[in-house]
Structure formats: C-alpha cells, structure tokens
Amino acid sequence: MTVIKRVIRRHTVVIVAALLGISGSAAAEQFDRGQALYENHCQACHEDWAHKREQARAVGSLDALRARVSGWSVHSGLDWSAEEIDDVTSYLNRRFYKLTK
Ligand code: HEC
Question: Which pLDDT band holds residue 32 (cuts at 50, 70, 90)?
Fold first, then answer.
C-alpha cells in the first residue's frame, strides 16, 4: 500500500513540476532510483527470468515482494534504507509483478 502511495506522490511531483514549467529532471531522477539500484546491484544475477517464473514465483503480494527485496539487499551486503527498498520494490512491481496489494 505504502509503495502505491509513494508512486502516486512521485507522479504528482513530476506533474506539478511540469505545470510550473520547472525542468522535471530532478523529479524524474528520483523516480528512477529504484531502477538504477536494481540495475546496478541485482540485475547481473537475474534479469527477467527470476521475476517471470509463473509457477515457482515466490512473490504473491507487495509485502512479500518487499520482503524479498529487503532480503536481497542484506544478502548482497547493500543494507538498503527503507526508502531504497521501497523504490526497488516499486520498480519491480511496475515492471514485472503488477501487484495491487
Ligand atoms: C548472487 C545472485 C543474486 C543477486 C546478487 C540477487 N539475486 Fe535475487 N534471486 C537470485 C536467485 C538465484 C533467485 C531465485 C531463487 C529464489 O527465489 O531464491 C532470486 C530471486 C529473487 C526474487 C524473487 C523472484 C520471484 O518472483 O520469485 C526477488 C524479488 C529478487 N531475487 C530480488 C533481488 C534484488 C532486489 C536484488 C538486489 C539487491 C537481488 N535479487 C540480487 C539471485 C540473486
């Protein structure tokens, strides 16, 4: 739930910035942080396959996805903050899982 709210909030920032005629680049950069973190730290091991295993998929809810991301952050020695974990969870959900709760 909080992930969805966060996504909506970030979109709002981009929209407001555009309306004000401010360059959206700062907001857009912030919005893509989950993707950047994932691509830098996680993608080498598993790009698409891990998130597309229809039968064996270990993730059935946003909480479960977040728990996985959090776990991998520890396994990989990254110790991501709650915000970074939210960003990557949100990115993976947008790109692969499309979970609503
Ligand atoms: C050392 C290699 C390796 C690294 C680094 C790694 N992963 Fe994984 N990941 C795997 C393997 C192998 C699986 C599948 C086995 C499993 O489910 O535990 C997996 C599974 C997952 C799943 C569950 C997929 C599903 O839908 O069942 C998620 C989510 C995930 N990884 C996220 C991440 C994130 C986020 C990072 C970066 C912090 C990361 N992984 C880094 C190897 C890796």
Answer: confident
Q: Is 46 in the pocket of ligand 1 (CB under 6 A)?
A: yes
Residue 15 token pair: 């929209």
Ligand 1 in reach of 62 Cβ (< 6 A): no
Domain that holds residue 7: 2-19+33-97
The secondary structure of 69-87 as a DSSP string is HHHHHHHTT----HHHHHH
How much distance in Å is there from the Cα of 21 to the middle of ligand 1? Answer: 40
Confidence at residue 49, expressed as pLDDT on a 0 to 100 scale = 76
Ligand 1 atom index nearest CA of 56: 27
Q: Across residues 5-25, what is the average pLDDT?
A: 54
Domain contains 76: yes
Structural domain count of the chain: 1
Residue 68 alpha carbon to ligand 1 centre in Å: 7
Judged by DSSP in three states, 55 sits in coil
